[in-house]
Design a protein that fits this description.
Helix 5 links the parallel strand 3 and strand 4. This protein has 2 domains: 218 residues, Rossmann fold (3-Layer(aba) Sandwich); 32 residues, no CATH class. Helix content is 31%, strand content 12%. By secondary structure, the protein is an alpha/beta fold.
């Protein structure tokens, strides 16, 4: 595989969330790291279970918060963020995000969401003053973390048809909306269509090999593939109440798909 030219060399953070180092998720993480480095990119990895990441937000996240003072999480996180007084583990992860040109989240879908440890990484790392807030650009637009690409790589036990438009679980894009739109796009990152491995409880070698080839193609397009065309908050589609203005939704669209521009 050819090395990337200096103009193409990028910095990528991979956040992995699975307790078993021999799992499919761990294998996909290792593959992504090797593939990206082989093409000349710089890669950092946050293996949350190996790091023994603390998931819950609490007063320990803000060391200078007075013990006798009521904890308002958003206000406390913003004060600590702007003053550079967050707990060291949060500050280290924020530095990785700032460093990156792209963020990849690798996780198994558990109960139609991310594992608790990854939700805790999101809750603690994307503080007010870092991922959102009055001191940074507005959300759902350029955002605080604009200029970064974002990719979900998820393993799913169910079959693909169960996550289709008529599938019993609903469309995968809708299930992942809180991450794709509520985390990535809210903070200004540019989300790509998710990569998914279905039927993940049993993946024979030949299907894993095919999955790696498909994932490799997605990784090769990390900075060139067309992103999900979410509407911007400042683009004239929304009113002051943050609701879509009459007439802007695509004909026939409903629910969450109304927040994606028709035709890209």
């Amino acid at each position: 595989m050819n090395e990337a030219t200096p103009q193409r060399r990028k910095k990528i953070l991979v956040v992995s969330a699975h307790p078993e180092p021999r799992s499919l998720n761990a294998s996909l993480t290792s593959f992504a790291v090797e593939h990206l480095r082989a093409t000349g990119h710089e890669v950092r990895v946050s293996d949350l279970y190996a790091m023994k990441w603390k998931a819950p937000v609490d007063a320990d996240d803000f060391p200078e918060h007075a013990a006798d003072r009521r904890l308002g999480v958003m206000a406390a996180s913003e004060r600590a963020t702007l003053a550079g007084r967050l707990s060291p583990d949060i500050a280290a992860e924020q530095e990785k995000v700032r460093w990156s040109d792209a963020v990849i989240l690798q996780f198994p879908m558990w109960w139609f969401s991310v594992p608790a440890i990854l939700k805790g990484w999101i809750d603690r790392v994307f503080t007010a003053g870092f991922g959102y807030g009055p001191e940074v650009p507005p959300p759902y637009s350029e955002g605080a973390l604009a200029g970064r690409r974002a990719l979900v790589s998820v393993t799913i036990g169910a079959r693909e048809s169960a996550f289709s438009d008529r599938g019993i679980h609903g469309r995968l894009t809708d299930v992942l909306h809180p991450v794709q739109h509520g985390l990535f796009w809210f903070t200004g990152m540019t989300p790509l269509e998710p990569f998914a491995v279905y039927g993940a409880n049993e993946v024979p070698e030949e299907r894993f090999a095919a999955g790696k080839r498909a994932y490799g193609q997605r990784l090769d397009g990390l900075f060139t593939d067309e992103p999900v065309p979410f509407r911007t908050l400042v683009g004239g589609d929304y009113g002051r109440d943050m609701r879509l203005l009459p007439g802007v939704e695509a004909p026939g669209a409903s629910g969450l798909e109304m927040h994606v521009r028709a035709g890209g």
